[in-house]
Automatic annotation (TrEMBL), chain A:
The chain crosses the membrane at residues 65-82, 94-113, 119-139, 151-172, 178-199. Its main location: endoplasmic reticulum. GO terms for cellular component: cis-Golgi network; endoplasmic reticulum; endoplasmic reticulum membrane. Keywords: Endoplasmic reticulum, ER-Golgi transport, Membrane, Protein transport, Receptor, Transmembrane, Transmembrane helix, Transport. One of its GO terms (molecular function) is ER retention sequence binding. This is ER lumen protein-retaining receptor. It is found in: Endoplasmic reticulum membrane. It is a multi-pass membrane protein. InterPro entries: ER_ret_rcpt (IPR000133).
Length: 212, 10
C-alpha cells in the first residue's frame, strides 16, 4: 500500500458514497446512467469473486465487500425504488457492445487462460469503458447536476491516482501488471474532456453545461 | 520485471 493507492481508493469510495447520497437525499436518480451502474456492478462481481479464494488483507476484503454491496444497492435504487425518476430515454448508449468487446479481448489477451483470470481481465477491460454510457448521457442532455459532476470527478481521479501507484510500484517493488496499467490509462483518458470542464466550470461555481 | 502473480489491488 502506498499513498497514491490509498488516496485513489478513498476517492473511489467517496465517489460511490456521493452517488448514493445524491440519489437518497433527492429521492431521484435523474441524470444518472443506470447502464453505467449495471456495468460497474458487473465489474465488481467478476473481479471480486476472489473474495472466496484469495485473502489479501482485512482492508482489501472490507473494501471489496463494500464496493459490491454499494453497487447492488445503487442498482436497486435506480431500477426499483426510484425507477420513476430514471431517465431511460436519455440512457441510450449501446452498452451491450462494450460487454461483447471486453469478453473477446479478455479471452484473447490475458495473463493466464483460466476462468478466474479471464473474469478478472474482463472486469479490468469493462471498467475502463464502463463510464461511457454516463458520459454519453451528459453529452445528450448537455448538462449535469453539480453533485453528479463531483461524483464523476472522484470516480475519474481514482484510476488516475492508480496510475501514479503503478509507477511507484514499478520502481519500488518491481511490480508491473500491464493489463491493468494500459486499461487504467484508457479509463483515465476517457475522463479528460470531463476533467477540463470540471476544473474550468464546476470548480468556479458554475454548472456543468456543455458548450453548444 | 515481475508480472503480478496475484491481484492485490481493488
Amino acid at each position: 500500500m502506498n499513498v497514491f493507492r490509498l488516496i485513489g481508493d478513498m476517492s473511489h469510495l467517496a465517489a460511490i458514497i456521493i452517488l448514493l447520497i445524491k440519489i437518497w437525499r433527492s429521492r431521484s436518480c435523474s441524470g444518472i446512467s443506470g447502464k453505467s451502474q449495471l456495468l460497474f456492478t458487473a465489474v465488481f462481481t467478476c473481479r471480486y469473486l476472489d473474495l472466496f479464494t484469495n485473502f489479501v488483507s482485512i482492508y482489501n476484503t472490507t473494501m471489496k465487500i463494500f464496493f459490491l454491496a454499494s453497487s447492488y444497492a445503487t442498482i436497486y435504487l435506480i431500477f426499483m425504488k426510484f425507477k420513476a425518476t430514471y431517465n431511460r430515454n436519455h440512457d441510450t448508449f449501446r452498452f451491450e457492445l462494450l460487454i461483447v468487446v471486453s469478453v473477446i479481448l479478455a479471452l484473447l489477451i490475458n495473463h493466464e487462460f483460466s476462468a478466474t483470470e479471464i473474469l478478472w481481465t474482463f472486469s479490468i477491460y469493462l471498467e475502463a469503458v464502463a463510464i461511457l454510457p454516463q458520459l454519453f448521457m451528459i453529452t445528450k442532455t448537455g448538462e449535469a447536476e453539480s453533485i453528479t459532476s463531483h461524483y464523476l470527478f472522484a470516480l475519474g481521479s481514482y484510476r488516475g491516482l492508480y496510475i501514479l501507484n503503478w509507477i511507484y510500484r514499478y520502481y519500488v517493488e518491481g511490480h508491473l501488471d500491464w493489463i491493468a496499467v494500459l486499461s487504467g490509462i484508457v479509463q483515465t483518458g476517457l475522463y479528460c474532456d470531463f476533467f477540463y470542464l470540471y476544473i474550468t466550470r464546476v470548480m468556479k461555481g458554475k454548472n456543468l453545461t456543455l458548450p453548444a | 520485471i515481475v508480472v503480478a502473480d496475484q491481484h492485490d489491488e481493488l
